[in-house]
Design brief:
With about 375 residues, the chain is an alpha/beta fold. The protein is built from twelve helices and twelve strands. The strands form two sheets. It has a seven-stranded mixed sheet with strand order 1-2-3-4-5-6-7. A five-stranded mixed sheet has the order 8-9-10-11-12, with no helix packed on it. Strand 10 and strand 11 form a beta hairpin. Helix 7 runs antiparallel to helix 8. The N terminus is likely disordered. The chain binds zinc ion. Zinc ion binds next to loops.
Length: about 375
């Protein structure tokens, strides 16, 4: 059993690491204007048409410590394929209601891009609504979910109330997790976190795990009329079970958490830094003109993919050099310089800088260091 620090709770790793990786205070040059909160957090998404019959369901939660997954509808002549479910059945019920406004065709396949709870807890909604629906996931997801996945879910549900209370306390005291006064951006982000944690906790214990009924290790291609739906495992990155859904005709790539905006979600030990850079280059090689990330807005070029690949490549090179110099992990944390990447990913935003510290500086340096040690 890995230590608490080593456990990756799904994309919502924040519960413990928020408290473990306290960052030095940073000054904020300006606050960003947050989007107004919606009254129903389960419905906090936009449906965006990407191509004929292809729609992205894009979450509008503010960047923060708690996130939920984007989804995609692929509406074919006779049926529908959905990519990813959500972190709570209540959210997926709203997503399904949005689908019903577009078509009455049945959902035939749900593709889960990986096994994290914020992408799969809503599976049961499709299973209940569509008898015979099949769930497509990586073979490792089927192995992971009943074992480490169940243990991580339990830890998450046990830790979430404390996390929520910590965030509520921060709001009440007007202090962020680093102890400095909250900016408007941070306040809105914390409030968004609390809405999502509450939503997940309301149903978390009851949500059933629906395993893949069809597994993929390398590639599975579905044909629907003229449409090609190519499901690819391009390599290890965010997890060992990452799948990309590629629509070559429409030049659309649905990436799961291989691509997350505004900062990547890196888990240690689940993510592999060196492999991630290579996987992203393969993804760029597909030359998509529309990229739907696991979290964040739809991207219209590959510049963010390149930035991510550059970050992971730099992490790999810098930690390898640190290991060659005989540095400990703690020494490597000081010698690895990510200042330029922090500037590019986070700018002056305190929320993004904190996320960069939590998801990149903390776990990514440790993961890259471990990989460098293994190959040294
Ligand atoms: Zn994830």
């Amino acid at each position: 059993m890995p230590s608490k620090q080593a456990i990756w709770f799904g994309c919502a790793t924040m519960l413990f690491s928020a408290l473990l990786f306290r960052q030095p205070a940073v000054s904020s040059a300006q606050d960003q204007t947050p989007r107004a909160a919606t009254s129903n957090p389960a419905r906090n998404f936009d449906v965006q048409k990407l191509a004929e019959g292809v729609y992205a369901v894009v979450r509008q939660d503010l960047p923060g410590l708690m996130v939920d997954a984007n989804n995609v509808f692929i509406i074919n002549d006779e049926d529908v394929i959905v990519v990813d479910a959500n972190g709570a059945p209540a959210i997926t019920k709203e997503v399904l209601a949005a689908l019903r406004k577009l078509t009455s065709k049945p959902v035939k396949y749900v593709i889960n891009t990986h096994y994290h709870d914020d992408h799969i807890r809503g599976n049961q909604v499709y299973r209940d609504a569509f008898p015979g629906v099949e769930f497509i996931g990586h073979a490792f997801a089927r192995e992971y979910l009943p074992n480490q996945g169940a243990a991580n879910r339990k830890d998450f549900l046990e830790g979430a109330p404390d996390f929520r209370d910590t965030i509520k306390d921060s709001l009440a005291k007007n202090k962020n997790l680093r102890g400095t006064d909250l900016t408007a951006e941070e306040r809105a982000s914390y409030e968004s976190d609390i809405r999502l944690v509450d939503l997940v906790l309301r149903e978390g214990a009851q949500a059933q795990t629906v395993l893949p009924t069809i597994t993929v290790t390398d590639r599975l291609t579905l044909y629907r009329g003229k449409r090609v739906i190519d499901i690819r495992h391009l390599g290890h990155g965010h997890t060992a079970a990452d799948l990309v859904v590629h629509l070559p005709e429409e030049k659309i790539a649905i990436t799961g958490d291989l691509v997350v905006w505004p900062v990547p979600l890196v888990g240690n030990p689940q993510s592999k830094i060196g492999a991630w850079a290579a996987t992203l280059e393969k993804l760029r090689g597909l030359q998509p003109s529309v990229i739907v990330p696991g979290h964040g807005p739809v991207l219209r070029d590959d510049s963010y993919l390149k930035l991510l690949a550059d970050l992971f490549g730099s992490l790999q090179r810098q930690t390898a050099a640190a290991v060659t110099r005989g540095e400990t992990l703690e020494q490597a944390r000081k010698s690895v310089n990510l200042d330029e990447f922090r500037r590019q990913f986070a700018g002056d935003s305190p929320v993004r800088r904190f996320s960069f510290g939590m998801y990149v500086v903390g776990p990514a340096v440790a993961a890259a260091y471990r990989e460098a040690k293994e190959t040294h």
